[in-house]
């Protein structure tokens, strides 16, 4: 506010940022007297009750590095399908899931309230791979995030322009309502579940870490509500797709505020799942249970990236290569068996081929070959843009 009364309380209405640019643009200076600073700080801590400042900085950076490493070499980013997209309607009662199965690509419309069941299936156009989005609580469309979209009134079921919308499904049970002239479709970032009805006084965060014994990622959902002890549930599998592909975070909350939705790699594939906030139990939304994902088997990374991700392991490789008189600056390939046993192929100083047994790759991965190039790269894990280790829902 520009002006505040000399006494009494002031309420600030906050809106979730759509992205980093929006967040930075909202951080304009606000004049305050020294005695007002503690009150602002108290309000900020009420919004974010868990402070990250009390965590050991070195440990936090290590956890963040391990989480990015897992994202780079794990199943979630390297495998695709059968569920490849997920969208929650504004009312939180319906969800759309894109699945790729034996019958081709389909869109499944799922009702979440009062119980989870599939309403219908829609066959999308074969040449249209745009994202799912809800124009209203009862209308599902295909659209391209970030593009200059035409208003919904200008789109039709037959529209093929990439900058317009293609209506995929309308709820036949919903009463017809006139469109709002010029209204653009809701984007996934518009559905960050900041409404008080769905939050119900709770706060959510996802803590990511790595299991040192299995090399698998661990995602833990923590739910705090008032003065009650927080609940903590370990989430199954790994988040599917590059981080941020479905919004930040992947979770969405249904209209009753009882469940969270996510796309996760479980049972050999990416599936749309629902978590019960009271018990931590999961169940699937899509019908393609048992359908395996299609995973990439080869990936190329610069040597500096691999060293940043797995420094101790790369140090062992360097010792083995040097002992075998291999070119320490040359490229090499890691051949990883399903059991984890690993062989490195490279060349010596004379150009002769070398094939050496090395310690097993330390992470469980769908990759069967990792080509490590000698090209210089930034000393960081080649993952999608880094996210905070703690992600408020």
Explained architecture:
The protein has helices spanning 20-25, 37-47, 57-73, 75-78, 196-199, 303-309, 311-323, and strands at 79-80, 83-88, 94-101, 104-111, 117-122, 131-136, 139-143, 166-170, 202-210, 217-225, 231-235, 238-239, 252-253, 259-266, 269-276, 282-284, 294-295, 298-302, 332-336, 342-347, 353-358, 369-373, 390-392. With 393 residues, it is of the alpha+beta class. The two termini are 27 Å apart. The model is unreliable at 152-160, 244-250 and 382-393 (pLDDT under 50).
Task: Write a compact overview of the structure shown.
The protein has 393 residues and is α+β, with helices and mostly antiparallel strands. Helix content is 16%, strand content 32%.
What gross morphology would you assign? globular
Number of helices: 7
Task: Write down the oligomeric state.
Answer: single chain
Q: Using the CA coordinates, give the radius of gyration.
A: 24 Å
Overall mean pLDDT: 75
Order of helix and strand elements from N to C terminus? HHHHEEEEEEEEHEEEEEEEEEEHHEEEEE
SS content category:
alpha+beta
Quick one: how many beta strands? 23
The profile of the biggest β sheet is: 5 strands, antiparallel
Low-confidence stretches: 152-160, 244-250, 382-393
Q: DSSP strand (E) fraction?
A: 25-35%
